[in-house]
From TrEMBL, chains A, B, C, D:
A biological process from GO: L-arginine biosynthetic process
Originating species: Microcella alkalica
Alphabetical list of SUPFAM superfamilies matching this protein: Glyceraldehyde-3-phosphate dehydrogenase-like, C-terminal domain, NAD(P)-binding Rossmann-fold domains
GO cellular component, one term: cytoplasm
Role summary: Catalyzes the NADPH-dependent reduction of N-acetyl-5-glutamyl phosphate to yield N-acetyl-L-glutamate 5-semialdehyde.
Pathway this chain belongs to: Amino-acid biosynthesis; L-arginine biosynthesis; N(2)-acetyl-L-ornithine from L-glutamate: step 3/4
Source lineage: Bacteria, Bacillati, Actinomycetota, Actinomycetes, Micrococcales
Record's protein name: N-acetyl-gamma-glutamyl-phosphate reductase
InterPro entries documented for this protein: AGPR, AGPR_AS, AGPR_dimerisation_dom, AGPR_type-1, NAD(P)-bd_dom_sf, Semialdehyde_DH_NAD-bd
Gene behind this protein: argC
GO MF entry, a single one: N-acetyl-gamma-glutamyl-phosphate reductase activity
UniProt-listed PROSITE patterns: ARGC (PS01224)
Localization in the cell: Cytoplasm
Length: 348, 348, 348, 348
């Protein structure tokens, strides 16, 4: 008998993508989809692409409507999931796609978010390398509260952790510049996200160290072994609905050979299903991972500049959000980690 | 009486944009447009948007067809302009939109281009700061051979030179990641430049220190006063036909205040017509400069990361190519530097 | 001494484009820009691309702030300009970019708009052919109240009127399908206009005869000589910020030769500056007219289907809105009709 | 034991999409992928998104390399599949994604294609209504030679056939205008398909009755019961990599009620898995069907214009090409028709 699932915040982009993937999962059954202003509508009127779930209606988000499911996925605005999650039974698997339970340091939460802090949950990035050995996957087995990482965080963390753990790049003075699609910002009505503003244009935001994903990246890199990491992080909105292409760079540890640098990444992900390191000289495009739970990357060594350059491509709504949730869910429930998750991108 | 102008390589994007701007210039008259495979066609069949020049036919590119003009603009593939330019009289103003005459160091040319080196010309970036004081503008007055900078080079150089000359950023370990439109790659038929490949995708290229624009950037920064500059430079194609959004970062010189950093940029460009530094906390989009000869930038200080972050937006075909040529032409001929050049972008 | 101009509703796309073009007009001086929710801000904070007008602040829209100018351009939501215009002196030239004064038939207004009707003004489409002979241009000389046409209306009207007046196509059973950029819908915050919704997608709207531009098209075709015209009209939003590509078709009048059909269009626009009929077998793209006041079109005869097919490209914000206003303004004030208006598109 | 499959022409877009879908099909195993100029490369170097098939190398296209498979999919340029198919055994299931075997009328082939005619195969559009009763599905059971329809043809045929068969629209004087992504034109290197040409622009092609898909549409409508159908057909390239949004219109048969018109479409597709008629007043976007084998449509009655308007959205590479092939394959092999085919689109 399949596990029953409810998705809260189903009318947004993250909630919609969770539903798309959940409905194709062989061991799960979506029973409930909740919303706030759209409650009462048919799900398919809000997400016309979700034909598989045409029978679902959106009900009001509350502890009552979410009760009685094996799995609850929270796709709510930041600050909204903490109180709601506290009302759900401990043995229900709850996955939070929002930021509320990601940060382990309350001071970071207060500085970058500022609403009430609700503590941290098991962090849903299975491939995250732990200092020395081990991976985050182990912390997810049997977990019942999982914080799904931020999409930009996933791209940057996966791109840097191998070099950090292997000691081939320096943890201070990292840089990351990301070309990102607007769907990561959600279905929110702001002028900056209008099609007329973004079509034919590239637009930076949160420039100069103020983006909320920065403390989460540094937290992950510390897990991978970085002492006092620092990162210059700049996202740029570009005219594609989905996708993140992260260009991350790090100073090479002096004396490291180019082969040793590449080996750090190749070795780190050799056994991973969803992280794919390309052959030398090749780099990914976001189209290569569109709709897939794949993080694809290429690693270069720029000896003149003294930096390693890693290009990481993910689909922000899949490996960056809803796919990561299902991957973690599979682990938490003891299922095959790859169940219900696409490997292949949709290109062109 | 207007100066007569010929454009060689008129069927490409750079040539087309040069023609668009030249035809609107009050002191110039386009008499001749040349091409190779398209010779014999009407210009408007190759560039249907150039209604102002509907009377022109494309003639074969040669020293003979280019002879007899006051100004010759060369918009030819790299390696093609050196020999042709040598056949033109010394008193003709020749502007090369290609790379052939940009690099002052033959070893750099050989490493990054590899064809025959033809020496360097006066460098067409009027706003380029010279170490100590002075600007490149002075070197252009009366010049008759001008090498127009590469488009990425213009964005990165303008973004870094003020901090270099003011001594508020360190010249080593610079980084630049650029979101760029494909028109900068020209009208060349390669699979990577097909619409199906780029629509909905972000695609890096020339990753890891191999892009031909790197030595030109370093050459400029040395002019601005940098000793042994190094830069990690990564361009990413994004789905917009035109535009460059450069994210450039540099380590802050220890002890420098945030105000001193911003002042370096504000002061450097306070008197410039075509470089516009936005107020603190604001950053440009490429749409803001579409079709304009404007470089717009925002400067941030990321104290946590210890880096200055400068975002620069230009239109690669205008301030990055054809507009820069006309601005330099105006200076060389003693005209008002702003003549015939748009300030305002075409947004949305 | 230049004419002084005020633009009401300056923070929207139509208002912004009017300002861009007005600021480049040699006989006009923009003195005032008004807004509602953005009043009090600097214009350049709302339209960062308008560097030429950096000195302007947005003031509140009212009869008082608009008083004392020679020309007032109203770029207000439908229904808002009628009352305001009534407060402006009769000798001020008022151009309404909205729909309020376009329709001559009150019943049409009531059916498609429904708010209070304010009567009709001189219709600002100079090239509109009048039945028999003559053009709308004559009605604009000396006018002081001008209703600027809808953008889709301009494309469809220009594409059909020549065949109507020449009697080579039938006025009943016309069809029009338009690929349109979202900027025509204005800077309004609706989910359908979000970048995430439109990027990578084509989305129809107002399907089945309910679009407000339909009665205006039929009104124009009646002016051109059509008896009881009918049209099936379908706009489709596509992922480009600007531009309209209209595919209009009409049944051929039996016995008409293909040459006679093409001649109708070629002859109608032979003397027009801003309407350009391409040679046989060629058709325009919207990029060809981006930023220009040009309507470019191609005419084909499909003998098998028994229909003429006309493809019309315009920039919805220029020839479709702000450029049309300035063209009409030039005529109304007795200036050269082409003053301050670009012919050439911005491609690629 | 799964059926073994070979794909010829694997390096193009149609071939790549066939491989993406085939690799996810539970009853099929892709054994061979062939190419011409790319033979010898790894498949994943040509299609980096196809991680599931990373083990495959591209071999030369020939009867020898295609031999020994249960199923052969031909994704070759028009004119190339006829001779090759003749060399394959009769009991192998051959699906031709190209045009070579679609047309039943040799004169049509000669007029629109002109190369050698190879006769017609079972036509792979299962939902095609036959005059009176029955559907094309019946002709596909057990078939071993299947001609997969053209992508534009599928959209237009599905949009018109219900009204034709039900007698509520007239078969003469049909119109179709399509917004199409460039991937339908294949991975061919032509200037018109460059990203710089298409980004930010809408571009018509094959205007005026010359498109090769026209006779195929008329052939289908005749199957559905149309006597002497005629259609004005205009495709417009728009800046999205995939997708077709077809606006098709037809004159209403006098005296038909709006309800009767809508019922014709609702009834025709009530039992179809992959054709979805939206509720009254709703119309599809291409994003709703991205990556899915779904044709989604909305039907409107424009009483003023006397026309039915049907909007059809498909993914040109899925329901328009590779998905249609697999759907037909499922029928031909006696499998569940929906096996391996996605219902849900990838939005946003």
């Amino acid at each position: 008998m399949p596990y029953s699932v409810a998705v809260a915040g189903a009318s947004g982009y993250a909630g919609g993508e969770a539903l798309r993937l959940l409905s194709a999962h062989p061991e799960l059954e979506v029973r409930t989809a909740t919303a706030h202003s759209n409650a009462g509508q048919r799900l398919i009127d809000v997400h016309p692409h979700l034909r598989s779930l045409a029978a679902l209606d959106l009900v009001e988000t509350s502890a009552a409507t979410l009760a009685g499911h094996d799995v609850v996925v929270l796709a709510l605005p930041h600050g909204a999931s903490g109180a709601l999650a506290a009302e759900l039974p401990d043995d229900v698997l709850v996955l939070d796609l929002g930021a509320d339970h990601r940060l382990t340091n309350e001071a970071d939460w207060n500085r970058f978010y500022g609403s009430e802090w609700h503590g941290s949950w098991a962090y849903g990035l299975p491939e995250l390398l732990h200092s020395g050995s081990g991976r985050q996957r182990d912390a997810l087995a049997g977990a019942r509260r999982i914080a799904v990482p931020g999409c930009n965080v996933t791209a940057v963390t996966l791109g840097l952790a191998p070099g950090i753990r292997a000691g081939v790049i320096e943890p201070g003075d990292l840089t990351a510049a990301l070309a990102v699609g607007p769907s990561g910002a959600g279905r929110s009505l702001t002028t900056e996200l209008l099609a007329s503003e973004l079509l034919g244009s590239a637009a930076p935001y949160a420039v100069g160290g103020v983006h909320r994903h920065i403390p989460e990246i540094l937290q992950n890199l510390a897990v991978a072994g970085a002492e006092s990491p620092t990162i210059s992080f700049t996202p740029v909105l570009v005219p594609m609905s989905r996708g993140i292409l992260a260009t991350v760079t790090a100073r090479l540890v002096p004396g490291t050979s180019a082969a040793a640098v590449r080996d750090a990444w190749v070795d780190a992900y050799a056994t991973e299903h969803f992280v794919h390191v390309l052959p030398e000289g090749r780099f990914p495009r976001t189209a290569d991972v569109l709709g897939a739970n794949t993080a694809m990357m290429g690693v270069a060594v720029d000896a003149d500049a003294g930096r390693a350059v890693v290009i990481v491509a993910i689909d922000n709504l899949v490996k960056g959000t809803a796919g990561a949730a299902i991957q973690s869910l599979n682990i938490a429930l003891g299922l095959d980690e790859t169940l219900g998750l696409p490997f292949d991108g949709l290109a062109p």
